[in-house]
Amino acid sequence: MTPEELARRRGLPVATMHRLLAEYQFALTDEMAAVLGDDPANPIAAQFLPDAREFTVAESELSDPIGDAPHSPLPSLVHRYPNRVLWKISPTCAVYCRFCFRKEHIGRRGTALRQVEIADVAAYLTAHTEVEEVIYSGGDPLMLTTPKLQQCAAAYRDLAHIRRLRIHSRIPVVQPAAINDALLTHLSDLPQSLHIVVHINHSTELTANARAALRALRTSGALLYSQTVLLKGVNADAATLSRLINDLLDVGVVPYYLHHPDLARGTGHFRTALAEGKEIVRELRQRLSGIAMPAYIVEIPGGGGKVPVNELSAEQEAYLNKLGIW
Ligand SMILES: *Cc1c(COP(=O)(O)O)cnc(C)c1O
Ligand code: SF4
């Protein structure tokens, strides 16, 4: 989509759109363009099209909102919890979510994984026998070609202590054609059990092609989960979220996390108040089957990790309130 077309859709001067595009990356797949529609309030538009409100940056919004850096033994590896490592194997994504918490480190600001780094990760995982799970992250890890994924897997596939591979990706939903036979064969050939967490925020994203890709992943032996970001203007009401979750269950995806948005730059317009978030979750409990409840969580900025919102202390709630996370 050209800057002129984006400017028209947002009702902005073309020069303003150029400034937005210089600040924050944009990409949209054909699959998502097909469900975009013309309404600027469409949930796909709200998630992916640049918006002038992104110029409003609060002082507490950070370039590393979740504090990965202090827990990174290698440039691409985050080891915050003893038993699992997050491995950022791809710096790019097929779409760029406006609310992304890694927006300062991905796309044109990211660097591709080099062969020598794969060797470093292999050495690290070999030495750290407490690690039982490798989590592919990014960017979007499924942006890599299957041969590149095979190179990554060589870093751990023969290590007996690595029992699980988990992949966090938006690709099965936003670019389902990439879930092809070569990829499915590679994944099902790994000795590790396979867990795929798809990032999806609105049932509009669950196209017929996306459903087919998810079914193919299940057939290849993967267990499927979802993570959703609670986003004002996209899904911040119990009816929208319960429709999404029920649609996901129909194709075998079990809800995992409902994330409160992180303090990424220029994302204030997506935040709900704490009371509102809690009320939505309370209503979801009434509407949804017990097997369908995601955990509503928040990342404590500065490396505090993920915490269920209902387990926060009064001090933590107040601290996060002061930062403006809700
Ligand atoms: C989110 C995250 C994980 C995974 O956490 P789970 O609660 O197991 O989903 C692992 N490592 C890092 C650094 C993370 O940010
Ligand atoms: S797919 Fe994930 S990493 Fe990529 S822009 Fe969206 S939230 Fe960020």
Structural account:
This protein is of the alpha/beta class. The chain has a single domain, classed as TIM Barrel (Alpha-Beta Barrel), CATH 3.20.20. Helices cover 34% and strands 16% of the residues. The chain has twelve helices and nine strands. A nine-stranded mixed β-sheet has the order 1-2-3-4-5-6-7-8-9. Strand 8 and strand 9 form a beta hairpin. Helix 1 packs across helix 2 and helix 10 packs across helix 11. The radius of gyration is 19 Å and the shape is globular. The model has no long low-confidence stretch (mean pLDDT 96). The protein binds pyridoxal-5'-phosphate and iron/sulfur cluster. Iron/sulfur cluster binds next to loops.
Tell me the distance between the termini: 33 Å
Task: Please state the CA-atom Rg, rounded to the nearest Å.
Answer: 19 Å
- Order of SSEs: HHHHEEHEHEHHEHEHEHEEH
Named CATH topology:
TIM Barrel
Low-pLDDT regions = none
Q: Spell out which ligands are present.
A: pyridoxal-5'-phosphate, iron/sulfur cluster
Proportion in β-strands:
15-25%
Provide the structure class.
Answer: alpha/beta
The order of strands across the largest sheet is 1-2-3-4-5-6-7-8-9
Helix segment count? 12
Number of strands: 9
Give me the CATH architecture, please.
Alpha-Beta Barrel
* CATH class term: Alpha Beta
Q: Portion of residues in helices?
A: 25-40%
**Outline type:** globular
Average pLDDT rating: 96
